[in-house]
ATP-binding cassette domain-containing protein (Halovulum marinum), 321 residues
Amino acid sequence: MLLDVRNLSVEYVTPKGPAYAVNDVSFSLKKGGRLGLVGESGSGKSTTVLALMRLLRGGRIEADGIDLDGRELTGLSDPAYRKLRFADMAMVPQGAMSSLNPVLRISEQMGDIFDDHGVRHGRSERRAILGDLLERVGLSANVQDRYPHELSGGMKQRVCIAMAIALGPDLILADEPTSALDVMVQKQVLATLGRVQRELGAGILLIGHDMALMAHFVDDLGVMYAGRLVETGPVRRLFAKPRHPYTKMLIDSLPSFERRGTFKGIPGVGPSLLTQLEGCPFHPRCPMATDICRSKRPDPRPVDAEEPRHLAACHLAEELS
Ligand code: SF4
Ligand code: MG
């Protein structure tokens, strides 16, 4: 197993009291595998990724375990974590526009990754290495001489992918890497991300809004709601036989032709993160809710006789048609 996360929770202190952004989330990803996390904004997807990278501002992270390739990360010191970033796990951030420094040439920003990890190169060697990285993501080598404002959105996102793979990480975390781009460019950039991930043999955790785009990319899918993972399993099983009403509503809300289209969400609003709702967090929006749903929280459990890895957190999973 490449990544095994057990009961990850993230709590923020706010003036109105604690906010429960992520609650007891558990998932795993095998070496070279592709796992997607979908959910509405505020469902805790980005927070989960930032917690794994230990790049959260102010949130308190708790976990029974975060195992990366046999290494337990929860007890690691901050300096050890800094070494791990890029080298073992790297992130392609949401919105390359804001993550690149506007006053530095691409070569400087990419070079910093090597410098920060104590990798020294001679001048021409460094140039060749950066050029090679850029070519691997479909850019020309001399893009390194440019400033971010001289590049299109898609090119900037490709630069971010090149940076993420610079040190050959085992795990890539991608937070809506294509959400700011138009549809054609999205597909091309995602295809590039998938290709470099396969070439590296890295695993990828992809966060996204677009259920359909996601379904074509990942092997396994996790659906998040109110900071909880409500359904997980092989993406084909989830689409063929969703076992959580929320997942089913998301799939049903996609345009029916080839089930393509963007994540529209469903009627109603998610619960405030400031309250830990009693019972199932989805019950105020769930058409199937009964008394037990309002009093007892459902834990993720196997719900699919043909696929033991298919889990759902719903009391009535078996009754979903
Ligand atoms: Fe709906 Fe109840 Fe299942 Fe929650 S546990 S999703 S409220 S049926
Ligand atoms: Mg987000």
